[in-house]
Amino acid sequence: MMQDYALLRPVGTDRRSARSGVRQAAAFVAAGSLLAALLVVAATGSMRPVETGESAVSADLNDKFLQASGSGPAGNDFLSRLQDIWFVESNGGRADLAADATEMATSLLVAGFPGDMKEAIDVKTNPCDDFYEFACGKWDAEHSDKIADYKSQVAFSWDRADKNIRTSMTKILQEDAGPAGAYYRSCMDLDHIEAVGDTQLQPWIKFVDAISDKAGLVTAMTEFNKHDMDNFFTWGLDTDNRDSTRKSFSIEQGGMTLPDNTYYLEESDVMRGHREMMKKVIGKFFTMIGRGATADTEAQMILDFETKLAGIRVDRTESRQDQGTPTTWQHMNELMPYWPWKQWLQELGSCTAPPDGSAKVCTEDHLKVRMVGAPGETPLYISNEKFFPKLNTLLEGTQLETVKALLRWKIIRKVALYMPANWIDLMVEWNADLYGTSAKSPRDRKCYYSTSSGAAWPMAKLYLDNVFHTENRDAALSMLELIRAQFYATLPTEKWMTQEDRSAAQDKLQAMFFQVAYPTDKEGNTHWPKDTFDMDGQMGADFMTNFMLKERLSIEKDFDEIAKAPNRRSWGGNSPLEVNAFYGPDANGLWIPAGILQSPFFDAGNSDARNFGSIGSVLGHEMSHGFDDNGRLYDKRGELHDWWSKSTVANYKTRSTCIADLFSTYKVAGRSVNGKYTLGEDSADSGGLKFAYEAFIKKTARSDEDRRGFFTSFS
Fold first, then answer.
1. pLDDT at 17 over 60
2. Which of 93, 117, 211, 424 is 20 to 30 A away from residue 370, measured at CA?
3. Distance separating alpha carbons of residues 95 and 216, to the nearest angstrom
4. Which has the closest alpha carbon to 513: 366, 623, 394, 425?
């Protein structure tokens, strides 16, 4: 997945130090500006720092100066500044004149760039001194204090592309007669939402209140699971990473309310403040649902439990490397005897009506779900294995009332953003503490994003049918093949790999498939998934009801398809509307949504320099994920096994360690980056830039201006 390069809203710090921190973050996250700067020095031979000596400004640059207008109102000033440059060159000069010379030279070097690119450039910065500041500094300075109160970050290219989609689709959604339009309008109908209040939530609260023993808890947990709400542990269905012809059922450690273990375990003023705010917010929500007498007590119970949970969770760096291990229900019982696993599985596969009285979306029990882990059936996997014995001890010592409080909080968090204004206001108050946002998102903006997730596929089809420029897809496919060809040609030169491993890597690269703009089948024909039409005729007037129905339908689809062979080209939880790109190691495929195939990332009418530097580096980034610290574990079929020799693996680890160590030296807001955790993205950034640039310069002869345009577009 491509990372967003963004300015982040400062939380709990002053503006000046915050701007310094976020600029550091953007600089190294964007593929490491050091790498870009080193490459750009080689690519821009006509641009060097102004210095003493006869060749500080190239003949080409001098020609551009001399060809410029020396007459008219600004002519004398221009010629005077030109003389200053010569003076600096020949005599060492003064710093202010040197700076003036740099600005003039830089302005000429970017004179042919598109206007919107020049708007971001700081021409006072020599790109050979600080390439990030040169390419993004002006935009950075103009926007660091202009983040809307309802946003936590701004990102130049990503926000522009996203806004283009939002503007065009909002008009379409207002009139659409299908499920996407109905979903959007249910969100926009504030009068109805206020009139309904929390009446749709109360059946869930009563459902939890009625739990009196472990059997009742298991039943409740499975109903939560069927609406994509997990507790204590998570589960899911996906392609078996050891046999890509079948699905697997995986269980791993569960999540928590706050973003990371640090928020619970670190004894700093900042983290203590976040914990206090969490208690305050939970207490207010519990009061709003009629539990004012016990609200503060339950809030403390929830915080105490989640703090203990944070203390037993596997570290995220270690967890990221866990590819799952085949297991049995017997072994699960040995790890965690507190939980009746087989009873839970039986009830998970039952066809039931939701606790709120909504109609069933199933017609019969899912027998194949109930048979998970049996011989010849869907295999069972476990990740974070050492977490479960500790969870067993924690649950054995936890009172039922605490667990019920946790379930109440789970459903409140699930639906809070789909509720009346006072619920939204409380979420804004909480987000101000966590993310620095302090206002509600404009309602049409909120409803657009709610619909893009709640009715993703019906909305994506509307976008492809009415807005998307199909010529961009053809051009992107052509670019992908050029980048793949360059990647392929480079592999035989990688001496740290054995000959056999180089050949195997080429086979994997050649087998990699591309899903570009919209879903297609193996033959390249458009193939809209079942999700596109499942919601037809099912959306009503109630916003929360529509949301919960969408969640239930998603789980039901997984259950229906558990015994079917995986569709390697499935988009999973992503959609063509997203301004992003993805690589799937267990499928060995790339997904490039239509959302990112537009300006400023890409346009068939843009120059090669701009397209290769922006979307080209994104495509190369995703392709490189097939060989990063996680992707390298999977072969050309997307199956997990040791397909590299021990010597190649050892050499890879040695070389990748230098990237991890480099990024671990960076700090943002005083906190060190975890280079081991970010290694996959960091190495893909490096590879993406390398292969996109090499494909760009080999396609046809390139001028220095073309090369400058490539790297500036990348940044």
1. no
2. 211
3. 77
4. 623
Token representation of residue 444: 């049409």
DSSP code of residue 595: G
For 407, counting Cβ atoms within 10 Å of its Cβ (0-12 exposed, 13-18 middle, 19+ buried), the class is buried
227: which 2 tokens? 């609406």
CA 371 to each of CA 288, 345, 367, 553, 557: distance values in angstroms, whole numbers, following the listed order: 42, 8, 6, 21, 17
Say how far apart CA 181 and CA 179 lie, in whole Å.
Answer: 5
Tokens at 116, concatenated: 């919107």
Task: Cis check for the bond before 442: say yes or no (omega within 30 of 0).
Answer: no
Is 80 exceeded by the pLDDT of residue 481? Answer: yes
How far is it, in rounded angstroms, from Cα 638 to Cα 568?
A: 9
Instruction: Please check whether residue 388 is in contact with residue 232, taking contact to mean a CB–CB distance below 8 angstroms.
Output: no
Q: β-strand 671-672 against 589-593: which pairing, if any?
A: unpaired
Do 34 and 659 contact (CB within 8 A), yes or no? no
Note the helical H segments in 289-420: 295-312, 316-320, 329-335, 341-348, 367-370, 387-396, 400-415
* Contacts of 36 by beta carbon, 8 Å cutoff, 6+ apart: 30, 131, 132, 689, 711, 714, 715
pLDDT in tens, 595-619: 999 888 888 888 999 999 999 999 9
Rounded distance between C-alpha atoms, residue 579 and residue 576, angstroms: 8
Closest CA to 281 of 423, 419, 151, 401: 423
pLDDT at 139: 83
Q: What is the DSSP letter of 565?
A: P
CA–CA gap between residue 658 and residue 668 (Å, rounded): 20
Q: CA nearest 520: which of 473, 588, 559, 554?
A: 473
Altogether, the residues listed in the chain come to a count of 715
Identity of residue 648: T
Closest by CA position to 118, among listed 99, 145, 138: 138
pTM: 0.85
For residues 139 and 120, is the Cβ–Cβ distance under 8 A?
Answer: yes
Pairing of strands 380-382, 325-327: antiparallel
Higher-confidence residue: 72 or 50? 72
Residues 545-558: tens digit of each pLDDT: 999 999 999 999 99
% the chain with pLDDT above 70: 86
Residue 55: is its pLDDT beyond 60?
A: no
Q: 92 falls in which pLDDT band (50, 70, 90)?
A: low
Report the phi/psi class of residue 260: left, alpha or beta, with left for phi > 0 and alpha for psi in -120 to 50. beta
Question: What is the chain's alpha carbon radius of gyration, rounded to the nearest angstrom?
Answer: 28
Which three-class secondary structure state does DSSP give residue 601? coil
Residue 441, C-beta contacts closer than 8 angstroms, at least 6 positions apart = 150, 151, 449
pLDDT tens sequence across 267-319? 999 999 999 999 999 999 999 999 999 999 999 999 999 999 999 999 888 88
> Whole-angstrom Cα distance, residue 690 to residue 40?
12
**Cα gap 555→238, rounded to integer Å:** 12
Burial class of residue 73 in the structure, from the number of CB atoms within 10 Å of its CB (0-12 exposed, 13-18 middle, 19+ buried): exposed
Answer for the pair 438, 428: CB distance below 8 angstroms, yes or no. Answer: yes
